[in-house]
UniProtKB/TrEMBL annotation:
PANTHER family: KYNURENINASE. The lineage of its organism: Bacteria, Bacillati, Actinomycetota, Actinomycetes, Pseudonocardiales. It is an enzyme of class 3 (hydrolase). It comes from Saccharopolyspora phatthalungensis. Keywords: Hydrolase, Pyridine nucleotide biosynthesis, Pyridoxal phosphate. GO terms for cellular component: cytoplasm. Its EC number is 3.7.1.3. InterPro entries: Aminotrans_V_dom, Kynureninase, PyrdxlP-dep_Trfase, PyrdxlP-dep_Trfase_major, PyrdxlP-dep_Trfase_small. This is Kynureninase.
């Protein structure tokens, strides 16, 4: 049965998250009636606008440098803990807001490889987001390692059978995405992590397309390391800082490659020799981007308030509606749905293919 405009209105009226629409800045009167790329850049929350004004006028404008000791220094870890609790299934002290996704991934991969010094291979997915592949290739070239590529199905993602074929005693690290950016396929994080661990390898998960829209249980799944951006489903803003997760058991031996003032144990002692900070703070390098940080704090607060379970339920309902409409309107025109039909295997976006060029219809 085809979904009508009246059906969509009825779904809006029954939506338990409907009031959250008022919490976001609406576009100007430019003819836009729907935004279908939230999986690329989330809408700005109104609270972020108010917070930025307060930051400039008060924290920065009045407090000036005193604001570092009045809360700015603690923001990366504070927001990280809140994010871990609200959306990542991570206990406090393991998640921190840091640099861009690429820089965070570089730090995690190099640190993970260093924890397996006698191993020579990195496994990753050929259809991973390009940045992930570039970082893997760069590290492999720098250290003389071999990259083993999994050729996952573009309409799906990496399976346990595919990973098992590539794993060996030479595998140092497995780098995979939880939700595939091309297809929205949800990888079996617990099973793939356990499989890598059976072969003595560590795993780095990319959560860019799942953080804030798909429930994640990093601690329960035994994940070693994870990275993700905040400007998609966490609505933090364009170019906002990413986050990284370092499992508590690895923090004593974890050594990231970009030593910086903010990652030191005693930054205000101005010591010549570097001593890493205890806990996940050692993953920091340079001064946190406070202006972007407040966007991250407000975005994470919205997710925490709405509840990741409710967000997931709405994502399933929206993507189910999109696939139904696509079947009726677009498939007869020669397009193809390139995402899993089973909502249990699909994240919060739907990919349509026209010949070979993908474009996303997001929920």
């Amino acid at each position: 049965m085809t979904i009508t405009f009246e059906d969509a209105r009825a779904l809006d009226e029954q939506d338990p998250l409907a009031d959250f629409r008022k919490r976001f800045i609406s576009p100007a009167d430019d003819g836009i009636v729907a935004y279908l790329d939230g999986n690329s850049l989330g809408r700005p929350p109104k609270a972020t606008l108010a917070r930025l004004d307060s930051l400039v006028r008060e924290d920065w404008g009045t407090g000036l440098i005193r604001s570092w000791s009045a809360g700015w220094m603690e923001l990366p870890a504070h927001i990280g803990d809140r994010l871990g609790e609200a959306a990542l299934g991570a206990a406090a002290g393991q998640v921190i807001i840091a640099d861009s996704t690429s820089v965070c991934l570089y730090k995690l991969l190099l640190a993970a490889v260093a924890l397996r010094p006698d191993r020579t291979e990195i496994i990753t997915d050929r259809h991973n987001f390009p940045t992930d592949g570039y970082v893997v290739q760069g590290i492999a070239g720098e250290l003389g390692l071999t990259v083993r590529w999994i050729d996952s199905a573009p309409d799906a993602g990496v399976t346990a059978e595919q990973l098992a074929t590539e794993l060996s005693e030479r595998t140092a690290v497995v780098a995979l995405s939880h939700v595939a950016y091309l297809s929205a396929y949800i990888a079996d994080m617990p099973a793939l992590t356990a499989l890598a661990h059976e072969h003595g390898a560590l795993v780095v998960w990319d959560l860019c397309h799942s953080a804030g829209c798909v429930p994640i249980q990093l601690d329960a799944a035994g994940v070693d390391f994870a990275v993700g951006c905040t400007y998609k489903f966490l609505n933090t803003g364009p170019g906002a800082p990413a986050f990284l997760y370092v499992r508590e058991k690895h923090q004593d031996t974890f050594r990231q490659p970009i030593w910086g003032w903010m990652g030191g144990a005693y930054p205000f002692d101005m010591e010549h020799a570097y001593a890493p900070a205890p806990g996940v703070r050692l993953a920091l390098s340079w001064t946190p981007p406070i202006i972007s940080m407040v966007g991250a704090e407000e975005g994470v607060a919205l997710v925490a308030e709405a509840g990741i379970g409710s967000i997931r339920a709405k994502a399933v309902a929206l993507t189910e509606m999109v696939t139904s409409l696509a079947e009726h309107w677009l498939v007869p025109q020669g397009m193809r749905i390139a995402s899993p039909r089973d909502p249990e295997q699909r994240g919060a976006h739907v990919t349509m293919l026209v010949r070979t060029a993908p474009s996303c219809l997001g929920g």
